Amino acid sequence: MTERIEGHGGELALAALRAYGVREMFTLSGGHVFPLYDAAHKTGFPIYDVRHEQSAVFAAEAVAKLQRRPGLAVLTAGPGVTNGISGLTSAFFNASPVLVLGGRAPAFRWGSGSLQEMDHLPLVAPVTKHAETVFSTDDIPRAVTAALTAALTPHRGPVFLDFPLETVFSVADAELAAPPGIAPVEPDPEEVARAARLVAAAERPVIIAGSDVYAGDATAALREAAEALQVPVFTNGMGRGSLPPEHPLAFAKARRAALSGADVVVVVGTPLDFRLNFGDFGDAEVVHIVDAPSQRAGHVQPAAAPAGDLRLILSALADHPGDRADHAGWIADLRAAEDAASARHAEEMAAETDPIRPARVYGELRRVLARDAITIGDGGDFVSYAGRYLEPAQPGTWLDPGPYGCLGTGMGYAMGARISYPDRQICVLMGDGAAGFSLMDVESLVRQKLPVVIVVGNNGIWGLEKHPMRAMYGYDVAADLQPELRYDQVVSALGGAGEVVAKAADLGPALHRAFDAGVPYLVNVITDASDAYPRSSNLA
């Protein structure tokens, strides 16, 4: 079904965006994209602006990840686009359906040296699913539709369009088609059956579920498969919370015991990358379940690798008609390891030390975070502890930079999360190193009345670099920050509020004040710089 619409390029683009459920625009003001602002302003389409373009793209990515729909960032030409490339790249690694619309110098005088004239496509093409310059105004709805369809088709990912100045400012009559339905990718039934037989027959199987389980709306199917086959489940990324912590098959702290003892490891919706030892689990057979054939690992030969709609594959595993091994003993062994680790962690999270150990910060956070709180990790060392000590209770409540590991996501993710969930707790966990990337965008949150809580682990160093470098060379360089820097005063100066905490006993009251404040509030926790995160047990 199609309809004819008329308007300038911004109006044509916005009409196509609305058809896909896009409900807000993240941007930093630029003249090349004024028509997009005009279209939004005249129709009450919300515009949220930031102080650095990376935050606009990260905010759009947070919306895309949390709401499983397209997120939109609008960037002006040249440096506007290049400033957003780290956000685009993170979205690419995270399979987030983000659309970046860029301005572009006028085509009619291309090569003459117009302001911010550059060809963006060679830069963005390697980190997008689709990148295109739209030269005709009446072609804008078609281009937006094609880009968003590509973004939402598994394996999902970001897309990019830019509009020469005369294209987006001109008026045209155009055809707007309804968004095409995206059919589920049907997996090979023989490959699914092979995977089901391996899991059902295994004596010590383990499931590791990642972000695509949430993105593909497959959390219910994951639970169905785990319960039907009685397989313990570990998670990473946005897979966290797929099973609530109290579920008898949910595990988080016994991963080393599980992976060293498993005979079949089922990895669902996450790549076999550095977070999973590149898919090397010793003698265990690997079943890699992915949402598209393109995501099959090329460096590992799995015993089975079903590719397609994760709901269909996981439901088929649950319905496996053959014999199933008894896993009760294996689950009991892992539960014993989990309980022992939980006891150790409880002791660590209650530590009365001066200076404060990061574990204590997370012990106090566990007391105040609601089950539906959105927790955002932006950092290295400090956020690694979050993976160890925090256990999301619901799916879709954990945001971290993902495998690309880009710092600076914090304020953009916070903006997207607050807009997505106006009534939930939004908590950003930030290292003091990461604070240097995006803290100025607290001003954007204050100005647009978007309260969030920011907890900074302030140890005055680049923790993931300083300790390893000293171990390797006996010295370190370029690994120190100002000790006890008052990041809370920065937030206060930008219109928010905050405080510094140097004693463990003061953590709880400070966090309660933060969540009650109703403005962006930074709790600046002075942590122990000598406390190095144990990388071998990273659960993030």
From TrEMBL:
<protein>
    <submittedName>
        <fullName>Acetolactate synthase-1/2/3 large subunit</fullName>
    </submittedName>
</protein>
<comment type="similarity">
    <text>Belongs to the TPP enzyme family.</text>
</comment>
<dbReference type="InterPro" id="IPR029035">
    <property type="entry name" value="DHS-like_NAD/FAD-binding_dom"/>
</dbReference>
<feature type="domain" description="Thiamine pyrophosphate enzyme central">
    <location>
        <begin position="192"/>
        <end position="317"/>
    </location>
</feature>
<dbReference type="GO" id="GO:0005948">
    <property type="term" value="C:acetolactate synthase complex"/>
</dbReference>
<dbReference type="GO" id="GO:0000287">
    <property type="term" value="F:magnesium ion binding"/>
</dbReference>
<feature type="domain" description="Thiamine pyrophosphate enzyme TPP-binding">
    <location>
        <begin position="378"/>
        <end position="525"/>
    </location>
</feature>
<dbReference type="GO" id="GO:0030976">
    <property type="term" value="F:thiamine pyrophosphate binding"/>
</dbReference>
<dbReference type="Pfam" id="PF02776">
    <property type="entry name" value="TPP_enzyme_N"/>
</dbReference>
<dbReference type="InterPro" id="IPR012000">
    <property type="entry name" value="Thiamin_PyroP_enz_cen_dom"/>
</dbReference>
<feature type="domain" description="Thiamine pyrophosphate enzyme N-terminal TPP-binding">
    <location>
        <begin position="9"/>
        <end position="121"/>
    </location>
</feature>
<dbReference type="GO" id="GO:0050660">
    <property type="term" value="F:flavin adenine dinucleotide binding"/>
</dbReference>
<dbReference type="InterPro" id="IPR029061">
    <property type="entry name" value="THDP-binding"/>
</dbReference>
<dbReference type="GO" id="GO:0003984">
    <property type="term" value="F:acetolactate synthase activity"/>
</dbReference>
<dbReference type="GO" id="GO:0009097">
    <property type="term" value="P:isoleucine biosynthetic process"/>
</dbReference>
<dbReference type="Pfam" id="PF00205">
    <property type="entry name" value="TPP_enzyme_M"/>
</dbReference>
<dbReference type="InterPro" id="IPR011766">
    <property type="entry name" value="TPP_enzyme_TPP-bd"/>
</dbReference>
<keyword id="KW-0786">Thiamine pyrophosphate</keyword>
<dbReference type="InterPro" id="IPR012001">
    <property type="entry name" value="Thiamin_PyroP_enz_TPP-bd_dom"/>
</dbReference>
<dbReference type="InterPro" id="IPR045229">
    <property type="entry name" value="TPP_enz"/>
</dbReference>
<dbReference type="GO" id="GO:0009099">
    <property type="term" value="P:L-valine biosynthetic process"/>
</dbReference>
<dbReference type="Pfam" id="PF02775">
    <property type="entry name" value="TPP_enzyme_C"/>
</dbReference>
